[in-house]
Structures are given as structure tokens and as C-alpha cells.
Design brief:
about 220 residues, mainly beta, Beta-galactosidase, Chain A, domain 5, six-stranded antiparallel β-sheet, 17 strands, globular
């Protein structure tokens, strides 16, 4: 959580096994409410299975009033041994959020077609509104495909793939950047109600397409 010292985040582990961990965070202390003044509970479960990794987050609003929902994750991906220019990135059709010089969405947006191409020298640092209920994004190369699927709750994403770095970030987001200030795309959870968000990451072998690993 940006701006919150990790020492303040007293997660309570509720379950821990070889393939699953669940934890709970009570956001009701004075020091936490000074940062984000909306009492609520967060429940997070991370599950590892042979087919991939799932992350589920549930927000339970307190009784004092509605809680705005604006959180996300920063999964970073890469393909070792293969030049970044040869990684193939696949994105669904979405709506691109127009940003100002500070990278904050201006409120304007426009449709963009699906993207399916080697990265080459393409540079991404863009916010999008997703159109599908369960959109899928993938990065492929060297006989592998990494797929990220939004399962629930995530209506926005930031795609970050700087051309001089060997990584791609595809970020599940419940609201666009700066939503707590602008109100754009911001949802509220009514007192006592629950909001669930989840995503899944999997890695699959794929048929070689002529792209080889570097020695």
C-alpha cells in the first residue's frame, strides 16, 4: 500500500499450508485511519496450484459509512534468456485513458484494438479501462506463455513495459490512477457489504515459433 509504512500493516495469518495462505488486516487503528479514514477489513488469500497462482482480495466495509475501493497489484513478468524485443505481448481490446504530463488520467479515453505483437522497441506506460468481464493478457517466448486473467473486480489496468528494461508489468486495478481524488471510475462499498477482486497467473508450454533463446 503506497504511502503506508509496512510496520503499520499488522496482517493476521488465518491459514497457512504448503499451497495456500490467507491473512486479514483490520483497518481501524488511529494511525491507519489518519492515512485512509474509512474503517474496513481486508481479507487476502493466495493459492498455488499446478496450473498457476491465484490472488483474491475481499474488502468488508465498516459500519460508519461507505468505503471507496481503489487498490491494485504490480505483477512483473519477464522471459529469461530471450531478448526483450522478441517477447510477444498480447492485450485485449480496451479503452486507453488519456493522461496529462504527470501521468494522471485527464478523464478522456478512446478505444484501442487488441495488441498481439513482438515488443521490439515499443514502449508502454499506459492506463486502460478493460471491456471484458474476464480479460486475459499474455507474454510469450522461448516456448512459454505467461497468462494473467482478471477474474473479478478489476476494471482497469496499467501496462508498463519500458523499452530499456527486461520486464513487463500488467497491473490489475479496481480504479484508475488518482481515482480517490478525481472520483473517476471509483466504486463505493456500503456499510457491512463486501467487495471481491481476484486474478490468476499461469505459465504454459507452447509450440516453438522460430524464436530461440540467446546463448
Amino acid at each position: 500500500m503506497h504511502g503506508v509504512p509496512w510496520a503499520l500493516l499488522a496482517w493476521e495469518v488465518c491459514e497457512a499450508t504448503s499451497d495456500r495462505i490467507a491473512a486479514r488486516l483490520n483497518w481501524n487503528r488511529t494511525d491507519l485511519l489518519a492515512v485512509f479514514p474509512f474503517p474496513h477489513d481486508l481479507e487476502m488469500t493466495v493459492t498455488l496450484r499446478p496450473e498457476g497462482l491465484s490472488v483474491e482480495t475481499t474488502l468488508v466495509a465498516g459500519s460508519d459509512g461507505p468505503v471507496p475501493v481503489s487498490f491494485g497489484f504490480h505483477p512483473y513478468f519477464g522471459i529469461p534468456g530471450l531478448a526483450r524485443a522478441q517477447w510477444r505481448l498480447t492485450l485485449p481490446a480496451m479503452r486507453r485513458l488519456v493522461s496529462d504530463e504527470r501521468g494522471i488520467p485527464s478523464g478522456e479515453e478512446y478505444p484501442v484494438e487488441a495488441f498481439d505483437s513482438p515488443l521490439g522497441a515499443i514502449d508502454f506506460d499506459d492506463g486502460f479501462a478493460v471491456l471484458e468481464e474476464r480479460p486475459r493478457f499474455s507474454l510469450a517466448g522461448a516456448g512459454l506463455r505467461i497468462t494473467l486473467e482478471f477474474l473479478a473486480g478489476y476494471r482497469y489496468t496499467q501496462v508498463f513495459a519500458p523499452k530499456d528494461k527486461d520486464y513487463v508489468a500488467i497491473e490489475p486495478m479496481t480504479a484508475p490512477t488518482n481515482a480517490l481524488v478525481s472520483g473517476q471510475g471509483l466504486r463505493l462499498v456500503e456499510p457491512g457489504e463486501r467487495f471481491r477482486a481476484a486474478f490468476h497467473i499461469r505459465i504454459d508450454p507452447m509450440a516453438e515459433s522460430g524464436t530461440r533463446r540467446q546463448p
